[in-house]
Every structure is written in C-alpha cells, then in structure tokens.
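Sample log: NAD(P)H-quinone oxidoreductase subunit 5, chloroplastic.
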Amino acid sequence: IYIFWEFVGIGSYLLIGFWFTRPVPANACQKAFVTNRVGDFGLLLGILGFYWITGTFEFRDLFKTLNTLISNKEANLLFVILCAILLFAGAVAKSAQFPLHIWLPDAMEGPTPISALIHAATMVAAGIFLVARLLPLFIVLPYIMNFISWIGIITVFLGATLALAQKDIKRVLAYSTMSQLGYMMLALGIGSYRPALFHLITHAYSKALLFLGSGSVIHSMETLVGYSPEKSQNMVFMGGLRKHVPITKTSFLLGTFSLCGIPPLACFWSKDQILNDSCLYSPIFAIIACFTVGLTSFYMFRIYLLTFEGHLNVHFKNYSGKRGKPFNSISIWGKGSLKRINKRVRLVTLLILNNHSSTFSFSKNKSIIDETLRKITHPFITHFDNKRAYFYPYESDSTMLFPLILLILFTLFVGSVGIYFNKETMDLNILSKWLTPSINLFHHNS
C-alpha cells in the first residue's frame, strides 16, 4: 500500500505544478511535496515499526498478531502507540488534517479539473481510506481513537472558519474539502466506519460537481478579464451570472444544497448519520459538528450569492482598475503582469496589408487573406468606434456541460446506496453489502 500511496502523491504533485513555468504553481507543488514528506516519513517509520513488532506486512496477520501480543502484554505498549501515531501522521498529511493542512489551498493553482480530481477522488481520499483500513489496529490501542476524533473535530471547525474569509472561489472550496474530510476523520475516530466511507462517496460527487461548476464560472469570467487567476477566480468581480450561465448556476446550486445537507441530496444521508453517531459519542463533538453544519451552509450560499446573484461587478473596459486601457494581455507563462498592447501599430499594419492585398501574386489566396484580415480587424475597429461596448460571460460548451449534468444525476441519486431500508423488504442497504467483508474482518479482529 505504501508504494501505490507514493504513486498517488507523485501524480498529484505533478498535476498541481502543471503550469510549471509560473512561480506560484511551482511553489504550490513544492509546498505540497514538502508537507506530505513529513507525513510519508512518519508512515514509513510506522510500517517498519509494526513489521519489527509483528514480523509481517499482511493486514490480516498484522491485526491478529498485534491483538495477541497486546492481550498477553508481550508488547511495549508505548512503542506500539508511537508506531500507530506515525501511521496516522501519513493520513493527516495526505488528507489535509490539522496541523498538516497548509498545502491544500495552494494546490488550487493547478487546472480546475485537476482540483476536482484531487479533492474528490484521489489524493485527499487516500488518508481517509488508510485510517479506515487500519481501524482494527487503532481500536485496540488506548487513546488513539480519541486522538483521531479530536484531530477530526478540530479540522472540521478550522476548515469551515477559514472558508468564511476567502475571496477566491476555488480556495473556499478547498477549505470546504478540508472541513468535510474532518467529518470523515471524526466518524472514524468515534468508530463509525460505514458512515465515514459513505460520506467519502457522497462528498466526492458533490465536490466534483462544485469544482467543475466553478471551472465553468472561471472560464466565463475570462471573457471579461483575460487569463488572470487573481481576477477570474475572485468572487468580488463576479455577480449576476445566473442569466449568463443558467446551466452552470443550476448545477452549482444543487451541489451547494447537497454539501449543506439538504434532503434528499447525497450528502444529507451520510452527514446525518455522522451527526447522529457524534451525538451518541460525545456532546462536545455533537455541538461543534452541528454548529459547523451552519457554517458550511453560510459559506456555500455566500459563494452562490456572490457569484450568481446581484449584478455583474466588472466590465471589460475597466477591469484592470485603470480607465482608458481596455486592451491588456496577461501571459499564461510568467508572473501575470499586465502588458499593454500597441493597438495603433497593430491596426495600421493590418489595414495596410488589407489595402495592398491586390499586390499578392497568388490570386487564389487573395479572398482568403481578405476574409481573414476582415475577421481580425473587425472586433478592434468595432471596439474603438464604440467606447461603450461591453463583453459579457457566456455558457460553456458541451464538453464542460456534459460532466456537470452527469454529476448532477449522481448527486441526486448516489445517496440511495447508503439509506437504511426496512429489514422486512431488504436485509441491508447496498453500501453495507459492499462493505460486509471488511466489516466482518473488523469485528473478527477487534
């Protein structure tokens, strides 16, 4: 599991630093790599420590041998607890739990589909899966489960409060992911194995829908501000997009409803089970978890209202904050500084070429050149003649809308896999049937 754990990390680091010639994504990639080295080093030490204690890497033999050693008091309990904490450190770093959460917001510098992949299905889910896989080991050790649950509840509250103050739409969703991963870690810490994995599934579809929806919004905002992540992702410049991107608006609203836990959408069923189990386990955990649900609703509807409601807060001619300078180019490669286009020289050159196109010796290319020059010069001439002209956002094409529609269907119906049914009509829900082998192993070894 450690080898493929590292493969997941390598792929994620390279995807975060996709725009490797720009300093900010390169630094974000470096930060994610260094932070996860701390956790991965602890994970490796923990694996070697348990191998030294039990003499095996196999999960089933490891759980059985460790149970026997602890029952017969043949193992040094402090050393076993230390190895368990080192194993958990790997999950803390990979799943962006407190205090190794600092890499996650900066990971948003990668392309938006990459952000959706990392936050929904791959990198951050690996830590939750590791803790769930090793739960029979953790549960026989004193204080470890309490430690896991406290890390989870701190992450739940910290992620939600940090999300409240962000202006970047992707960074809000990043801190939201951190908070929801805290719910999963809390559930594992209190022994709620099935609700934790259920929330991992439902959150994945909802968060993928939200990230792809934010990508569609950013793509539409680039019509106004060009390629500038500081502006196209800033919710201060957005507003009133519901009439320009109606499909994206609907999909984002459904994802927001799901993440807030509004029935009958996916996250309602899993989050409700986690809150119920936390109430049974500890009143403190229940109060913090329920209060954070309200914070989640606040920052998610804050995103929706700032982005889609109200009026558009930026226009093409003055988005840079300087009047009279409507044409600026922002390089994809570099620091993103504004560079003035010499429009007079470019227009004069194009018009001279257009007027002297009859001098070309190739008559077959004449009409093609004239038509091309007309298409190039027409937008420039139109804009300079009409100083009140504006550009507006537009809906994405089918290649971006099709995944949104597909994820809407999953967000609506994936919660049904974990709903409890009446035993007279159905013995178990679908998720419990999938998890039956691992649950049997869990009870056998604990």
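Observation: The mean pLDDT is 78.
Observation: Residues 2-314+397-445 form one domain.
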